[in-house]
Amino acid sequence: MACSQHLLLLLLLLGLAEFLVFKRKNVLLLHKVIGEPCKQHSECRSHCCATNSLNPQRFCTPQTIFLQCLSWRKPNGYTCKDYHECRSSCCLMGGLDKQRICRPKTVFLQCLPLRKPNWEYCSDHSECQSQCCIRLNEVSPHRCIPKSGLLVQCLPL
C-alpha cells in the first residue's frame, strides 16, 4: 500500500501523471501534445485546438504569450470570403475574375487595394498602379499609363 502511494507521488513529481487517462462526463480524454489531431480545446495540453493550414483538420497548437489560441490564417494572395480569413485582416475585391483576395496593409494599417497595371482600362487615377488614368487622344478610352516627364507627372505619351 505504501509502495503504491510512493509510486503515485513519484509520478506526480516527475510530471508523468499527464499521460494518464482522465474520465470526465463519461468521455475519455488524453492530453495531446502540439501537432496531434483534436476536436476540442480540452483534448490538448495547451488547451488550444485550431486549424494550422488550409486543411480544415484541427490540431493541438501552442498558446500565444497572451494565452490566446490563434487559428492559421491565409497569407496575401490567397482567395478569401471574409477579412477574418486573412493574416492581414484585409480581404478585397481584385483581379480580372473579381475574386476577393487577401491583401497587405500599408504602414498606416490601411488595406492596400489591388490596382490595375499599365495599359488597362480605367475610370479614375486611384484604380491604376501608376496613379495615372488618362485618354491618349479624344476618341480613345481612359487607360492606366506610366507617369512620365522630367517631374514624373501624369502626362499623355
UniProtKB/TrEMBL annotation:
InterPro entries in the record: Colipase
Keywords linked to the UniProt accession: Signal
Signal peptide: 1-19
Domain of life: Eukaryota
Naturally occurring in which organism (per UniProt): Equus przewalskii
Name of the protein this chain belongs to: Leucine-rich colipase-like protein 1 isoform X2
